[in-house]
Amino acid sequence: MNSGILVVAAERELRRRLFDALDQAGYPQIHSARDVAHAAILLEGRPPHPPLQLMVMVLSGDERQAQSCLEQLRRLPGGADTPLIAVLAEGATLNPAELPSGIADWLSTAQIDTELVARWRRAQRSHAGQPKPGPAEAGHEPGDYHYVFEEADSEWLIVDAQTNRLLEVSPTVVRHSRLHASQWEGQPLAQVLRFEGISITQVLADANRSWYPCQRKSAQGADVGQASVRRIRHAGNDALALMFRSDRADLRAEAALTLLSRIFASTSGVDAQIAAGRLLFDELGLDYLAVWSARHDGADAPLQMLQLWSGDDPAWPPAQLQSSLQLVLGGKKLFYRTDAKRLAAVDPLLQQLELAGFAGLPLYDERHTIIGAMLAGTRKGFGEVGIIEPVLRCAAARFAQVLELGRTREQGRAEGLVDALTGLPNRLLFNDRLDTIIREATRNGECFAVLFVDLDRFKAINDTYGHDAGDQVLRVVTQRLCSSIRASDTVARYAGDEFTIVLRHIVKNDDVLRVAEKIVQVMETPLCLDDGTELQVTASMGLSFFPDDAGDAQTLLKHADEAMYSAKHHGRNNFQMYEVSPEYAKEHGMALKSRLRHAEGNGELRVVYQPQVNTETEDIVGMEALVRWEHPELGLISPAVFIPLAEETGLIVSIGEWVMRTACRQAKEWEQRYGLRLRLGVNLSAVQLMEPNLLETVASVLRDTGLDPTLLEMEITESISIKAAPNLVENLNAMHRLGCHIAIDDFGTGAASLDYLRRLPADRIKIDQSFVRNIGVDPDDEAIVRATIEMAHRLKRAVVAEGVEIEQHMQFLRTHHCDELQGYLFCRPLQPVSFDKLLAERQRLLDVRETMPA
Ligand SMILES: Nc1nc2c(ncn2[C@@H]2O[C@@H]3COP(=O)(O)O[C@H]4[C@@H](O)[C@H](n5cnc6c(=O)[nH]c(N)nc65)O[C@@H]4COP(=O)(O)O[C@H]3[C@H]2O)c(=O)[nH]1
C-alpha cells in the first residue's frame, strides 16, 4: 500500500527540488513541509499505520539539532519506523560520519537531483530486509555491501582482515580487469593491488578513507587508479573493503566527464583540435582515431582532418575503399565493442589495424546534414559501453561543431561575411542569422534575447595606445564574449567596438540577466597588451527580448541599442533591459496617447494574473488582475507607463471596465472549472472612483459575468485623497454594500492617517513592495512593516505583503503574522493559459492527496 513520503526543508527552493526529484520519479504522495511543526499539521489525523514510505529532511545545524529533529520526526504519525534520508544543507556543521543513528543515508544538496531517488530505492530495499548500505558503514550484516557491487562504476575488493587475502570481488572488477572471479578469490592483496610509496599494511590501517594511488592487475597488465579502505563485516567476521577507482576515462564516468570538459574547452583552431583528438586518443586508450570531412564542393573523396594510430604506419587504404567510412558518411552509426574483426573481410583498414573495438559516428551540422565522420578503434576492445559510447558521441559532436565553424568561416571570408580581425560574423551575416532565428523561434514558440554590447571609451584606447592596441583589445573582448555564452548562441562584431549577441532558448528572463552579469564581470578583469601595458575595458549593454519587445530583427536591435544607451546613462559598465520608460512616454506622450485610444478596440490589451498565497499554508487564496498593453511596435508596455496616460485622457474609465469585465469572466470560468473560489483583486484608478456611474458599471459586470460579488476586491491606491475624490467614501461604501471587498494598495507610500484608514471601509491593506524589498536591509522599513501589520490587525483589517521576492522576506512576514503574500518568490503575473496550468497542477496534487489512505 502506498503510504506517502514526507519532505521537510525550511528553504523553499530546496523543498521544491526535493519534491520535483521524487515527483519526477513517479511517487505521487509527497507531503512537503517547512519544518516538523508544519509536517505535523500536514499529517494531522493520520493513523500511525501504514508507516510513511520515506522521510527526507534537510539538516542545517549541528549534531544536537539533527538529533532533536530526528526525534520529533519519529513522533509524527507513521514516522516511527520509516527510513530517513538526511540532506546536509550547505554550511551545516554536521559531520556526515557522525550523523545520529536512525538515518538510513545522507547526501549533499548538490546531489538531490541526481542521487535522491537512487538512495531512496536503496533505503527501501534495505528496509524491506534486503541488503543494506554497505561497506561505507561498519557493523552491518554479512552481505550488506552487495548492493554496492551492482552500482556505478566503482570496483570493490573484499579482504579478510586476518589474512589479507581476497574473499570476494565485485562484478565490475571482473569486467574491467577481464580476469575471471576465480583468478581473484584467495589471492593475497599484495599481488593484485600495488600501492605507490606506501605499504599495504599502512593503507589497511587507515580508517580515514583516504585515497592512495595504486595499480590494479588486469589481463593487459595493470590499470592505474586509486584505492581507499573501509571496515566491514563479512560472514560475521571482520573484513576490509577496498574501493578501487580507475583513472581510465573509458571506465570511470567521472574521469570521462573531465575528459569531455577538456575537449569542449578546447578552442576551435586546427592545432587545438589535433590536441583534443590526442587527448581523446590517450585518455580512452584508443589505437586509432580519424576525423573526416565530407566534401561539400561536390568532389567525391572526403578530406582527412585528423588521424592518430598507435602502431607503425601501414599502407593506408584510400578512403573510397574503406567501407566502414563510406557507411558512416552515408549516415550509419557503427559500434563494435570487441568483435570489429568481423568487418575485416570487407574493410581493408580494419584488416590491417586488427581492431577489436570499433566505432564510426557521422558528424552532423545544425541542419542535421552529414558533414563528416569520426572513426575510433582499439585493439583490445572497448571498456564500459555505458561510458565509452556517450563519450565518443559527445566528442563527435564537438568535432562536428568545429568542422561546421571552420566551413562557415571559410565561406564567410570568401563572401565577405566574417570580420577579418576577430573571425566573428559581421553585421551582414548577423542580420541574416537574426532573421533565420526569428523564423525558427516563431515556428517553435521559442523566446530569445538580443544583446547590444558597446565598449566604454574605446576611442580613448585607440587614441592613447594606438590601433594595434585597439585591435588586441577587440580580440580579447571577442574571446571573453565567446567564453560567456553557449554554443547555440551567436556573437557578431556589429561595427567598430560594437558587438551583438543572440542568446537562444530562454526559459526565464533571469537566465539572460545572469549571462549579462557574467559578461560585465569578465570584462572587468584587466587585460594585458603584448607590450605589457595593463588596461581595463568595460562594456555597456542593452537587452531586448523576442517576442516580448518586438517581433522583427530591426526593432529588436533598435530596442537593444536604446537600452545600451540607457546603460551608458546609468554610468557605463552595466546592462539595462529595454523598456518603454516614463521618459519615453513623456517624450512621445501624444503619439502614445492617440495609439492608446485604439488599443482596446484593436485587441492590444491583455490581463495577467498574479497569485496571492496564505502565509501559513502557502496555498493560493486570491489573485490580482494586472493589465498589459501589447503595442505592435514597442512591444509590451508596462501599466506603470500607460496608466497615467490613460488617466490623463480619461481612457482609464473604459480600459478599467474592460479589465474588470475580462478578469471577472475569467475568475468565474476558473471557479467553475476548479471549484475554487479565489478572490480577485482589480485596480481602480482615482479617475474611475470619481465616475458617478461606477457602481452601476460594477453591478453590471458582476451580473453579466455571474461572479459572486464577495469574490471581487477593489484595490485603491493609498495616495487617493478623500478631498480629491469627493465621492470616494460613498462610492466605496456602496460597493461594500454590493458585497465587494476593498483593499488599500501601496500602503505606506502615501500619507494616510489612522483616521483615513478608519473612515474607509477597507477589508485589507496591501503593504507596498518598497518596504518589503528592504526587509533584511533597512531596519526602519522593517519597523514600518511590523507596525503596519499590528495596526491593521488592531483595526481588524487583513494584510497582504506585495513584492515578496526572497525567502528572508517570507520568514520575516511569517514571524510578524502577515496574512497573505504576493510576489515573485511564489509566482510572477501569469498569462491566463499559464495560470490555468497552475490551478490544474494544484488540483492534481489535491486529488492525489485525497486518494491517500485516511
Ligand atoms: N519587483 C517586483 N514587482 C512585483 C513583485 N510581485 C509583483 N510585482 C509587481 O508589482 C505590481 C503590483 O501591482 P500594483 O501595486 O497594484 O501596481 C500596479 C497598479 O497600480 C497599476 N495597474 C496594473 N493594472 C492596472 C489596472 O488594470 N488598472 C489600474 N488602474 N491600474 C493598474 O500598475 C502598477 C504596476 O503593475 P505591474 O507592472 O503589473 O506590477 C505589478 C506586479 O507585476 C515582486 O516580487 N517584485
UniProtKB/TrEMBL annotation:
Region (Disordered): 123-143
Record-linked SMART domains: EAL, GGDEF
Domain of life of the native organism: Bacteria
Ranges where the GGDEF domain occurs: 446-580
Residue ranges of domain Response regulatory in the record: 4-124
All residue ranges annotated as the EAL domain in the record: 589-843
UniProt-recorded name of the protein: EAL domain-containing protein
The species this protein was found in: Rhodanobacter ginsengisoli
